[in-house]
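Input record (one chain):
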Amino acid sequence: MSKLSWRAGNMLYPVPSVMVSCMGEDKKANIITIAWAGTVCSDPAMVSISVRKSRYSHKLISESKEFVINLVSKKLARACDYCGVKSGRDIDKFNEMKLNQYVSEYMDTPAIEESPVNIYCKVIKVLELGSHDMFIGEVIGVTVDDKYMDDNNKFNLDKTNLITYSHGEYFTLGEKLGTFGYSVKKKGKKTRQDKILKKKSSIKKSSDNKKLKNKNK
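The corresponding structure, as predicted from the sequence alone:
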């Protein structure tokens, strides 16, 4: 096997394509599509988004010190692309894409109601890196679409049909290959993820049984 040498560049693909909603001092909500987004810490939960200084949303986030990461489903793919090529200086993206603003208990900046998962973030640090500034946000809350909850009170993220971005193109996710820890799982032994799901299921059944007993009293 032979390899070709290329100059330095961003080849870390695929990446999530997310729609970030934000709002500045004028209280006008906007949406920017971002591919440079990711998790940077688990405890406390922190994420990052990288935005060019020239972007309208850079100004809004700098003013409010908050933003919402909205995960993108297949149904939102066109809106996702549109919000990445049009500027909020000129148009109302919520209105143009017929998206609804969802105001949560966490902050004034609205989320996108049609998104299956909304992650609310407060800016705690800004890193000036070069072409982009990285906004590091602490996650202060999350809202999810309850239609993806099952009878065991588990949120089925795989049912939301999320999209990903790779080198200028959008894709849906492919088939499931395994769960975390499956490569070292012994036959008949449950993984940590299996135990978590079983515990959640047990808690849900216990809660339902209590409700049934109270109803029959």
